[in-house]
Each structure stands twice: as C-alpha cells, then as structure tokens.
Design a protein that fits this description.
5-stranded mixed beta sheet, 12% strand
Length: 235
C-alpha cells in the first residue's frame, strides 16, 4: 500500500510540474533564424540560464521538436564548450533540440576542427552567436597548469599553456592545480585567448563579426550554482 501511495504522489507531482512549466517555443525556422539578431540570441541564452538556475525550465516539447527538425535545422548559436560532464550545455541555457550547435573539446580550445565547424555553423547554417564557454575547476586547465603529459593529451594541453603563461600575480609555488585562484585565473584567460584566436585564425568569423552578422563572446560556468557569466562581450 505504501508503494502505491508513493507512486501516486510521484505521478501527481510530475503532472503538477509539467502543468506549471511554461511551454518552450519551437526551434527557429529558416525565416525566424534570419530575423534574429546576435544580441537577441545572447539575451535569450542568458535568460534561459536564469531559468535554469532558478529551477524554472520550460517544458521541452521533445517529440514536437524531433518532428519539426527532422528535415532541417536552423540553430541560433554555436557553443564551444569543454567536454566536462557537469556542463550539460543545452540544459544550462534551457534550450532544446534544434536550438544550438554544440562543439565540445577538453579545455574548450579552438582546434582546426572546431574552427571549421564554427565557420559552417555561422557562414553556411546561419547561427548568430558564437560563445566560448569555460567552466570552474576545468580538469584540462589543471593539467596544463601542472604540465601533465599523457599521449595525445599532451598536445591538447599544450594549446592551453599560453593561458597559463599569460596569468600574472602569482608566486611560483602558487602556479599549479592546487591553487584554486590560479586555476580560476587561467580558466578565464583561456577563454579570453580562445575568443581572440577565433577572430585571428578565422577570417571568415572575423568578417562575419565585423559586419554585424554574428557576435563572438566568452563566458564562464559555475559548477556551484549553474550560473553563466560573460567574460568578454563582443565589441
């Protein structure tokens, strides 16, 4: 009897939760994507993160979104994120199927593959925003701080070394993964350098941004409260 009552209560809570959740809009159509501005997309993502942190996500409409996107996609943004399992990108911004391109690589660095993917997403597929999303206590950044070596990971961590070297104000004994403030500074610097490198290494992205077709921004995700903070708003 207790199991039945608990089951009924659980079902009732689920119904109440879905009833009170605001209905999420469908993913953009080609026309809607074209009419979006980069700033509007950024504002929408930050509003979605506010819903995420306040535990008020929109109802996802998963089945409807699968049907709507089966024959085409018109995402609003490209998020370059770390592979960290604690940063579920779509959930962080309260977005669903068809809303975002998401590229993931340890340390959210701009590899050639990521650059090509972002160029496709913006120039050819119409995304209006590029966000480099770093996060608190990044393991790849910690590895770079310690000069870790391991197979192909060694090359990847080498891409983060410029951020490690660019951070000032720490004594030699502080410049390692055990110092949380140093790691945090490198995480932020790594995002800043990646944003700069996107503009430097991709004439395609630089031209799109200069024309106002896209924005490129950096951001930081907190593992403690789920909030996203902009690091470098687009000029």
């Amino acid at each position: 009897m207790k199991k039945i009552v608990i089951g009924l209560l659980s079902s009732s809570l689920c119904v109440l939760s879905s009833t009170h959740a605001a209905e999420a809009p469908m993913p953009p159509t080609a026309v809607q994507q074209k009419e979006l501005t980069p700033q509007a997309v950024l504002d929408e993502l930050m509003a979605g993160n506010a819903r995420f942190t306040s535990h008020k996500p929109q109802a996802p409409n998963t089945d409807a979104r699968i049907d709507a996107t089966a024959n085409g996609q018109y995402p609003k943004a490209y998020i370059l994120s770390c592979v960290d399992s604690r940063v579920p990108v779509e959930e962080v911004f309260d977005q669903g199927i068809g809303d975002l391109f998401v590229g993931r690589v340890a340390g959210n660095i701009e590899s050639v593959e990521q650059l090509g993917s972002i160029e496709f997403a913006t120039k050819l597929a119409g995304a209006k925003l590029v966000m480099v999303l770093g996060h608190e206590a990044c393991g790849a950044v910690k590895g770079a701080c310690d000069g870790a070596k391991l197979g192909n990971l060694t090359t990847l961590l080498g891409e983060i070394e410029p951020a490690v070297k660019a951070v000032d104000g720490f004594e030699p004994e502080q410049r390692n993964s055990k110092d949380e403030k140093f790691v945090s500074a490198v995480v932020h610097k790594n995002v800043e350098l990646t944003v700069a490198d996107l503009r430097k290494r991709s004439p395609v992205l630089a031209e799109l941004e200069q024309s106002g077709a896209i924005k490129i921004v950096g951001a930081h995700y907190s593992l403690h409260d789920g909030s996203v903070t902009l690091i470098e708003p687009a000029p």
